Amino acid sequence: HFRFVVFHPFLEEILIGKIKYCSQEGVHVTMGFFDDILIPPESLQQPAKFDEAEQVWLWEYETEEGAHDLYMDQGEEIRFRVADEVFVDTSPTGPATATPDTPAQPGQSTAPPAQESGDKKQAPYTLIGTICESGLGLLSWWNS
Question: What is the pTM of this model?
Fold first, then answer.
């Protein structure tokens, strides 16, 4: 006997998570039990820019008094809308077959060459979020 929980939010659903970290790819969000959530730069409140020194995204919010930089710091709670989902087949593949014209010598490995370290392990299920609507983004932006 076993039990399991299925996490599959519907498109356009609004969820709340925490910022795990920021990168040039966008804002990476975690829900504690699920970490593969990305809010890409084009889906952030605009105008947005990435601060290389701080490694955070910020929203340049305009008011009558001028522009204010609202930082998206790690650990902050963020409300986002599910815009898309990405499924990647991560099933294991069979071993590579040795080429018939080069038989293996005694003591020589027939294993395929190691993957280059640049290869990135992909998540089987990723959510793509958006915060470019009023009321979405850091909860602290909308509390007052």
Answer: 0.73
